[in-house]
Amino acid sequence: MNYKEIGQKILEAVGGKKNVHNLTHCATRLRFTLADDSKADDEAVKAIDSVVSLAKSGGQYQVVVGSDVPNVYRALEGLLNLDEISKESSEKQDRTPLQSFLALISGIFTPILQ
To answer: Is this prediction's pTM over 0.90?
Structure first.
C-alpha cells in the first residue's frame, strides 16, 4: 500500500496544505482542523480507496482510515510541516477556553457514540 499516495489524495481532497491548521490522529481517524471546511470535498475524500468514512465533529474534519492510520499520518507528516502549522494555528486560535474544552470533549466522545 502506498501511504504517501493516499496521504497526498487526502490532502488534496481536504483543500490542500494551506487549508490544514492542525492534524492529529486516534486509533482509526485522521483529525484535521481546517481553515475553511467548505474547501474540503467530502465526496472526493469518501472516494479514496483507503478511506472508510468521514465525520465532522467538535470543529474537526475526521477521516476514518482504520488501522492504517499511523502509516497515513506519517505520510501526511512528510507532506505537511506540522510543527509550523501547529504554531501558526495556535497563534490564530479564535476559540474561547470554553469552546476549546467543549471541542475536546466532543472529539473524545463522538467516536464512542457512533
So the answer is: no
